[in-house]
Amino acid sequence: MPEQPYEPEGAIAGTGMGGAMDLGASEAVTLEKTPGGPDGTGPAEKPRSLWSDAWRDLRRNPVFILSALVILFLVFISLWPGAITSGSPLTCDLAKAQQGSGPGAPFGYNGQGCNVYTRTVYGARTSVTVGVLATLGVAVLGSVLGGLAGFFGRSWDSLLSRTTDIFFAIPVVLGGLVLLSVVTSNTVWPVIGFMVLLGWPQISRIARGSVITAKQNDYVQAARALGASNSRLLLRHIAPNAVAPVIVVATIALGTYIALEATLSYLGVGLKPPSVSWGIDISAASPYIRNAPHALLWPSGALAITVLAFIMLGDAVRDALDPKLR
Amino acid sequence: MGRYVVRRLLQMIPVFIGATLLIFLMVNVMGDPIAGLCGERQCDPATAAQLKKEFGLDKPVWQQYLTYMGNVFTGDFGTAFNGQKVTELMATAFPVTIRLTLVAILFEIVIGITLGVVTGLRRGSPEDTGVLLLTLVVISVPTFVTGLLLQLLLGVKWGWIKPSVSPEATFGELILPGLVLASVSLAYVTRLTRTSIAENKRSDYVRTAVAKGLPRHRVVTRHLLRNSLIPVVTFIGTDVGALMGGAIVTERIFNIHGVGYQLYQGILRQNTQTVVGFVTVLVLVFLLANLIVDLLYAVLDPRIRYA
Amino acid sequence: MRGARHARWAAGAAAVALVATGCGGGGGSGGGDSGAVLSASWGDPQNPLEPANTNEVQGGKVLDMVFRGLKRYNPQTGAAEDMLAEKIDTTDSQNFTITVKDGWTFSNGEKVTAKSFVDAWNYGASLKNNQKNAYFFGYIDGYDKVHPDSGKQTADTLSGLKVTGDRTFTVKLSQKFSTFPDTLGYVAFAPLPQAFFSDHAGWLSKPVGNGPYTIQSYTKGSQMELRTWADYPGEDKADNGGVTLKVYTDNNTAYTDLLAGNLDLVDDVPAAQLKNVKNDLGDRYLNTPAGIIQTLAFPFYDPQWNKPDSDKVRKGLSMAINRKQITDTIFQKTRTPATDWTSPVLGKDGGFQDGLCGDGCDYNPTEAKKLIKEGGGLPGGQVKISYNADTGSHQQWVDAVCNSINNALGNTKACVGNPIGTFADFRNQITERKMSGPFRAGWQMDYPLIQNFLQPLYYTNASSNDGKWSNKQFDQLVNQANAESDTGKAVQTFQKAEEVVRDNMAAIPLWYQNGSAGYSQRLSNVKLNPFSVPVYNEIKVG
């Protein structure tokens, strides 16, 4: 909402999938008390302050290590799914439909007789791709727009605030149904594009909030007084200090995007075959929940673990970056 | 205070127009709805042309939008393809969804805040870790999986509840759907409250209150909770709109004939009038909920005054 | 030529099931209670519930309970039998004199007369009323004036219809059509009371007809309460007290409700549950042949699919589909592999010919591979089978068909399903000729005649000829068959036309669909008619 009456919570607002991000926002925006010291013009000292402390914390945090390992593993199987599987996820034999686990198929077969294990492994690539690219898109678009609005203020700010309100007002699943129902492409791009389109306002609010906070810091004022240009102010002084909340929220959001992809598939507007994704498999298996629960549970489990890993990672990063909780 | 409200209301106008225009354009992108009305055959061209004319679909989009908004301001939300007034659809759908949303919010408040307070006060305890883990699991499993599983287990296997909701949609029937709908938000509320409580627990005013010798429950309820609830209230407030419009999945699983169902049907049939009408109302709900939340700040935090 | 009749089955039919809770509390059953009400699942009708405006199963279901026409299709055999018609006379297959039986009234007391029919038909045909089934009246003389393809209509009534007495009227067709009387069982030909015209809005909110049930209340999008009409003059009086139709969005939910004892009858069991049906319901499960055939149509407007040798590719694809395995596994034998382009419910005499398709419908991977190669390979190296993803369980079988083709051709990317988000968009792409590969084409008969399985689908420019297939020889044979006054000969000629369809593989026949229904212990004598709709009036409760 514009005219934030209470700045620290000001950046919060959201709809369905924004939940995670809101959560991050409220907690993340408190990062303003970055110990900056007199280093306003000395970027060389910066790594020692917030980031290095955070990194030291993280290295000792078992939650962080665990989730980072899970994510590394996911990245690995996304890049080389063939390393731990044999056969193609698209090879399905109806004769084996709904069978339980067997040789070469530890997770059994789904309703079409496809190997659930193979498909789950291959599905990681699509799901992680969707999550990572959507998050990148949202983070870049959101922080650029939000950052500029926060920095320049005035009418830019009002315009952006109104625009984000407009996007927030439209329920995400609804927007997905409308926009994606006409899509004929069977690539991941429409789904990613939709997520970026409806997701950026969340990041932009956070970016705006943290830029406004950072802008008021003494060292920024000092740099301005020294005659630093706008772009130098933004890039050298404000951005490094305002980016932390964005990273935190984006990490958590990544998990929700992966889950959203599954929901879209369930509503029939998600990714299309021959893409192999957890969302496609979960929604295809959901009617068979009574006969072949394994076909539903394995991809669901993989999805849950992935989302969990990203949220926990985001949590850990936030805790590490938050000086208050030290 | 009054001036603040007026200013906020004025700011809603561009947002309202923008949001309705956005959804209007989005629905328009979906293309020609008439083709779907004739079943597995081609509509005969004469009838199709006439239907288009009747629904105003032969006009340019901007003109359609202006006509539509003009009608909306006179209370005419148009007619769905099955010949029913959209306002009639709203009259049957909104009460159901409002009840569902109430149930969901009740769960968020009662369970979410309770768990949040308990875990926030005992940060690091086994209960805390357990609840934290549980909320993470709830967040990471898609709603439709949770919904289908609970429906199968509670509704069919154990027979505790009816698996679907009758057209009357009484509060009793909406408990499970409400819980499913609330589940993800509930997890957020828990986590949000927990963090907020944990942070404020160390604040000066709480320390002062404890030092004054106030009883513990008084410190928690009067001082700690009141201040910690601000982000939670914000979240729940903004969640109202999301819950009402985002119930598409839940309403589908439990066969609830509410807003989500009407929207889903409207989208499948590319019924611009229904979709835009319902979204228009949802946008209004969202904007008002946000305003109320901001006004609530003043109640919860005496430091905030609106000019 | 406006030969096309249609009924859209898939979108609606799949979204439904029957619920029967003891309406009003669930108590009070005790040995065939003729006053007891059952509740049945339903899908929200897409169009207003006017007879000439209802073109899908869900609306048709209600109209079938509320209306009786001149003819009625026997719930078991599908044969067209006289209902309100006392007699329908013709000497030349073009001019018909119809006499309406005495003693019939609408449930509001108004008499059913010849005028009730003529007014209703005129209303249905007139362009200004936007009736989507108007084309049903296309054979009647003067239709082009009342419903021109473009421009304004120049007449309000059909010149071919004349009321000649209180109970008689004449129909003049624009061409010979020997089986015209048999089409009169279709709901578009139902009579309408004066109230329909004088208070249209009132009628729509609570339709009044002349059938065994009356509508007690109707909450659109949610449920409809039908009650037995005590003074119903017909012989097929309802054996129960009424039916409550409840709208379900997802037929899985409806089936779940049935299991939970929350409902009595599901009239379309979702494919995924078929495996459980025996276990869940025992013998309270029906699986009856219905006049529904599922095919894959091709975009003949796409030059890639209309090359001289394309028929070989189509035939090859057909032979790459293991119909038996798919119907056994995905549909648990509730579909029967198709061997012609009609339906077994027509019977041998009606034109159904088992095995007409020949080896073209047999699964033969080697031959399939060979034929496709001979035909120049798959256009673009890949076939995309389009279907609408919003309703029905189409995804399951399309995926299975694709897997079968992929396995037969030894190429995991030879075939891929192409879900289209909404039915409306699916139809749009078909209408605008945007299909680039085969697409789902489901056909539910409007009336049990072989003509209805061929002409609307394969005649040049017929309205359900979605692939725009065109073949002079076929058209000629159909014209010849329609003009034939001897039914047996007409059927034979239609079969010859069907052979033309086969030789060109104009569409790949997949399987004949059965109607399926499950019901609770409260119900007995549950049947499905050849249109896969439950025969509600014969259901006994308690």
TrEMBL record, chain A:
A biological process term (GO) from this entry: transmembrane transport
Keywords: Cell membrane, Membrane, Transmembrane, Transmembrane helix, Transport
UniProt membrane topology term: Multi-pass membrane protein
Subcellular location: Cell membrane
Transmembrane annotation, as ranges: 63-80, 128-152, 164-182, 242-260, 296-317
CDD domains, per database record: TM_PBP2
SUPFAM superfamilies the record matches: MetI-like (SSF161098)
Keyword set includes Signal: no
InterPro entries: BP-dependent_transpt_permease, MetI-like, MetI-like_sf, OppC_N
Main localization, broad class: membrane
Domain ABC transmembrane type-1 residue range list: 124-314
Entry superkingdom: Bacteria
Record's GO cellular component terms: plasma membrane
Region (Disordered): 1-25
Family according to the record: Belongs to the binding-protein-dependent transport system permease family.
Name of this chain's protein: ABC transporter permease
TrEMBL record, chain B:
Principal cellular location given in the protein's record: membrane
Keyword set includes ATP-binding: no
Gene Ontology cellular component list: plasma membrane
Mode of membrane association: Multi-pass membrane protein
Localization per record: Cell membrane
CDD domains associated with the record: TM_PBP2
Segments crossing the lipid bilayer: 12-31, 96-118, 130-154, 174-193, 275-300
InterPro entries to which the protein is assigned, alphabetical: BPD_transp_1_N, MetI-like, MetI-like_sf
Domain (ABC transmembrane type-1) ranges: 94-297
Pfam families xref list: BPD_transp_1, BPD_transp_1_N
Family membership: Belongs to the binding-protein-dependent transport system permease family.
Name this polypeptide is given: ABC transporter permease
The organism's taxonomic lineage, starting at the top: Bacteria, Bacillati, Actinomycetota, Actinomycetes, Kitasatosporales
Automatic annotation (TrEMBL), chain C:
Stretch list, region Disordered: 35-54
CDD domains xref list: PBP2_NikA_DppA_OppA_like (cd00995)
Database matches in PROSITE patterns: PROKAR_LIPOPROTEIN
Name assigned to this protein: ABC transporter substrate-binding protein
SUPFAM superfamilies according to UniProt: Periplasmic binding protein-like II
One Gene Ontology term from the biological process aspect of the record: peptide transport
Span of domain Solute-binding protein family: 83-464
GO molecular function: peptide transmembrane transporter activity
Any one cellular-component term (Gene Ontology): periplasmic space
Organism: Streptomyces galbus
